[in-house]
Amino acid sequence: MPDPRASDDKASITVLVADDNDVAQRLCRRVLEKAGYSVLIAADGLQAVEVALAKRPAMILMDVAMPGIDGIEAMRRIKAEIPGQPIVIASAHSMASDRERFLAAGADDILSKPFRLADLVAIVAKLTSRT
Amino acid sequence: MKPFRTRGLVHRATPYLLIVTAFAVQAEARLGPLPVFPMYLGAVLLAAVYLGRADSLLSSVLAAVAILVSSTSLGDGSGQSTTPLLLAAILVVVAVAVHEAVAGIRRGADAVQLKLAEAEAREERLRITVEAAQVGLALIAPSGEWLQVNERLSAILGRSRAELMHMTLREVTAEHDQAAIEEALAMLRSGDILRWESELHQERADGGRVPVEIAIAAVAGHPSGEPVMLLQEMDVSGRKRLEGLRDGLVAVRHVIVSATTWEQAAPQLLSGLCAHLDWDVAQYWTVDGDLQALRLRHAWHRDGSALEDFHNQSRRLSIASGEGLLGRVWQSGVPSAQEDLSGATDYDRAAEALQCGLRAAIAFPVVIAGTVSGVIELLAAEPRQIENDLVTMLSTTGAEIGQFIRRSETAQALRRSETDHRAIFERSPIGIARISSEGELLEANPALLLMTEHDFQSMRSHAWPDLLRAYDQAASRARFAPLLAGISDGKSVQVRAGTGSGKWLWLQLTATSIPDASGRPEHVLVMVEDVTIVREAQDKLGEALESQRSANATLEKLDRTKTEFLSIVSHEFRTALTGIQGFSELIRDGGLEPDEVRAYGGYIFNDADRVNRLIGDMLDLDRMESGRMSIRTGDVDINEVLSDAIARAGSSPTVEFKADLDPRLPIVAGDRDRLVQVVSNLVNNAVKYSPDGGTVTLTSRSEGGFALVSVTDTGVGIPPDEIGHVFERFRRVRSGAAQSIPGTGLGLTIVKQIVEMHGGKIWVESAVGHGSAFHFTLPLAAENVTPLQRRHA
Q1: Per-residue pLDDT tens for B223-246?
Q2: Chain B neighbours among A 92-111 (CB < 8 Å)?
Q3: Quick check: B657 and B642 in contact, CB under 8 A?
Q4: Are the beta carbons of B211 and B199 closer than 8 angstroms?
Q5: Which of B357, B657, B664, B783 is paired with B606 by a 20 to 30 Å CA distance?
Q6: Which chain B residues are within 8 Å of A114, Cβ to Cβ?
Q7: Would an 8 Å CB–CB cutoff place B464 in contact with chain A?
Q8: How many CB pairs (< 8 A) connect A and B?
Q9: Across the strands, what pairs with B659?
Q10: Which of B567, B575, B606 has the CB atom closest to A113's CB atom?
Q11: Contacts of range B307-311, beta carbons closer than 8 Å, 24 or more positions apart
C-alpha cells in the first residue's frame, strides 16, 4: 500500500524484512513503506537468504527465532556471499548476552523488539544512507 | 768212582768168563755138552739175575753157540746131534725168563723204598705247616690240658709253649667264658658233639684280653691211643676292633637320625660309643661361652659306683682352654689320647681317674661350623693302645654330632617358627586360604570358614571356585593378572560372595604366591577379609556423594532452565508486544483510515489475548509443577467431554470431525474442567496442524481399568527429531508446514501435567505428512459404572 506522500528518492531503496511472525511483517511493511522504502518479506531464514541474494536489498531487517535456519545462520550465509550487506538483527531476544552474540556474528546493528516506530525508521535510514 | 766202575766191569765180565771156561773145559776134555751144561746154565743165570737185559741175552746166546760149536767140532755120534740144540734153546729160554722174574722183583722193591721216602717228606711238611700256620693250633687232652701247641697259638695266648704245658685251656680263658669252655669239653668228651665253635675272650699273661674265634674237634685214632682234641684258634681282635668302630659309628648315626634334640640324643650316644668301642666311661663337656670354660654336661658309665664318683668330681670342674687333655682338644680341635694315665703329667683329673680305676682316656671335639662347641671323653679301666682308625672314627663322630646339634637347633627354631605361624593361621581374624598353583584349595583357616559359613568340604568343592572366578573377573576389570598368573605385588581385589547361609558379603582378596626353593610358584596364599561394612559405608558415602552431585547438577540444570525459561518467556512476550506496541503507536499517531484502525485493533487484541493466555498457561504450569494445583475429583463422563469439544470446534471451516466413542465406557474419577482443558488443547492442536483440512477423530475405549482416549488428525505430523520433545515447554513444532501455526508452546506441557496428575499417561504417534495421534489414559472410577448406570441409579 504505497503512500503517495512518500519521498520518491527512497522508493528505489529496498529493505528486506525477514520475520516469521505475520503481525511483525505487517507492522514493518506498513511503517517502512510509509517511510518510502520498497519492502520485501521473507518468512524464514532460507527464504531470507534466497531473497537477499536474488534482490540485493539495501539493508535487511532480520528476526532471529525463525523456523528452518535462524536469523543468525541466514545472516552468516548472506554475508559470506555479500560481505558488505548491511543487516540489522531485530529480535525479541534482548538480553545483554544476546546483543553481544549478534554483534559478534556480524550484525551491523541491533533493534530490540518491541521497538518504537521511530527507532525502526531511524535505523533503516542510517544503514541505507550509508550505501 | 773208579773202584765202582772197576768192580762193575768185573761184575759184568763174570758170566762171560764162566762160558769161556766151560767151553775150554769141554774142548780140553773132549766132553759132550751135557757134562758142562751146569756151568753154562750158571753163567746165564748169573747174567740174568745181576746184569741187564742185554747182558742176559748176550750171555745166553754165547753159551748156546758154544754148546753147538763144541758138539759139531767134537761130534762123537750121529744120533746125538739134537741134544746140543735142545740145551742151547733151554739156556736162552732160562735166561729170558729168569731175567724178567728178577726185573719184576726189583721193581717191587723200588716202589716200597719210594713210598717210605714220601711219607717222611709229608710228615715234615705237615710239621712245618702247623708251626707256620696263621691260626693257633693245639692238641689238648679231653680234660683240657695242653698236649701240643704251635707257635702262633703261643703268641695269641701271650705265653710260652713250656708254660702252657703246665696249664689248661680253662686257665687261659677269660673268667666269664670259662663256664662255656667247660661245658663244651664235657659235650665233646661224651661224644654228644664232634665239633664246637665259639667266639670268646682269652686272658694273656700280661692281663690283656684277646678276642678269639675258637674251634675244638674230637680227633679219632691218635697213634698214642689216648683220645685227644684238636683246638684251632684265631685272634679276631683286629676284626673286632674294626667292627666296634663301624658299629660305633652306625650307632651314633642311628641315634642322630632318630633323635630330635641333642639333649635327647646325648645319653644314648655316650652309652652307644662305650658299648661299641669298649670303653667304660663317657663324658660330654660343653664350652660355656660365659665362663670361657668346659663344663660337664652329660655323663655315662658302666655299672660301678666308683665311676659315679668320677662324674661327680668332674662336675665340679671348669676346664680352661689348653688345660689338660680336654683343654688341649678344645684348643686344637683334634682328638687326643692318654694311653696310660698312671704317670701322666698332663691330664686334668689324673688323681681322680686313677682313684676310680680308670687308666686310659681319649677325647675328641664336637665341631659346629668350624668351632669346637664341646668335647667328648672316653675312659677305660685298663691302659689302651690307641689306633689311628679309632682317632679317625672319633673325629668323624665329633663332626657328625656337631652337624646334628646344629641341625637340631635349626629344626627346633623352625618348629618354633612353624608353631608361631600355625597359631597365626589358626587364630587370625583374617581368613587365610592356601591354594595350589592350579587353584585348588589346600587349606582354609577357621576364620575363613566362619566368615563364609562353609565347612571345608563345601568351601573346597564350590564356594572357593566361585570366589576364584569372582576374583578373576574383578581383577580383569581392574586390569590385574588373574589369581594364578604370577601374583607378586599382593594387590587387593574386592568381590561379592554369598555365604553358606545365603548372606552376601563383600570380600577383599589379597593374593601372595609362595615360591618353592627353585623360585617356581608352589602355592598361593590368599588373605580374605570381610569388608562388607566398610564397603557398604563406602557405597552409602558414594551414593550420598552421587546424590549430592546429581542434586547439584539438578540445581545447575534448574538454574539453566530458569534462565532459559526467562529468556524464552521474555521472547514470547516481547514478540507479542511488538505487534501490540507497534500498531497501538500507529493508531495513537493518527492519520489512519478507519479500516486500518480496525485491522490494527484486531492485531492488538489477538496479541494481547495471546499474552493473557501465555500468562494463564504459565501460572497453571507453575501451580501444577509446584504441586499447588489441586484436582477437584468428581465423576466425569469422558464421552460427554469429547462430544462437547467437537461441538465447540465444529465451527472450523476446513476440518471434519469424527467421534468413535465407546458407550459402555465407565465414568472416570477426575477434575472435569481440567479434562476439558486437555481435550480442547489436543483438539485445537489437531485443527491447527491440519492447515489443509482433513479429519480429526476422537475415540474412547475402556482398557484394563483405564479409559483410553485418542485424538487423531490427518495433518502435517511431527518430524522424528521433534517427537520426543513435544511435551516440553515452548517446544512448538515450527518446521515445515507447521511454522506459522501460533501457540504458547505450553499447551502440551500442561496437558501432560494434567493427565499425569490424574494418574494417567499420555503419548503420541506421528508420521510427517500423514498426521498425529495423541493418546492418553485415565483411571476408571472405583465403582466401575457407566454414566448410563449412574443416571439410572
Answers
A1: 556 678 888 888 888 888 888 888
A2: 92-95
A3: no
A4: yes
A5: B657
A6: 574, 577-578, 580-582
A7: no
A8: 72
A9: B698
A10: B575
A11: B307/B280, B307/B281, B307/B356, B307/B357, B307/B358, B309/B352, B309/B356, B310/B281, B310/B349, B310/B352, B310/B353, B310/B356, B310/B358, B310/B379, B311/B281, B311/B283
Q: CA-CA distance, A30 to A37, in Å (whole number)?
A: 10
**B579, B585, B607: residue with CB nearest A117:** B585
pLDDT tens profile A60-113 = 999 988 877 889 999 999 999 999 999 999 988 877 788 889 999 999 999 999
Chain B partners of A22 at a C-beta cutoff of 8 Å? 740
Of B577, B603, B734, the CB nearest to A114: B577
User: What pLDDT, on a 0 to 100 scale, did the predictor assign at position A120?
Assistant: 94
What phi, psi does B384 have (nearest 5°)?
A: -125, 145
> Nearest-CA neighbor of B366 among B397, B328, B332?
B397
Write down the residue that cell numbers 761184575 correspond to: B11
Q: Hunting for cell 518491541 — which residue is that?
A: A114
Helix or strand run (H / E) with residue A61: strand A59-62
Amino acid identity, position A35? A
Q: Contact, B696 vs B683, CB < 8 A?
A: yes
C-alpha cell belonging to residue B74: 767134537
* Type of residue at A64: V
How, if at all, do strands B668-670 and B360-368 pair?
unpaired
Contact B213, B197 (CB under 8 A): yes
Cα separations in angstroms, B261 against B368, B415, B512: 15, 12, 34
To the nearest 10 degrees (0 to 180), the angle between helices B532-589 and A117-130 is: 90
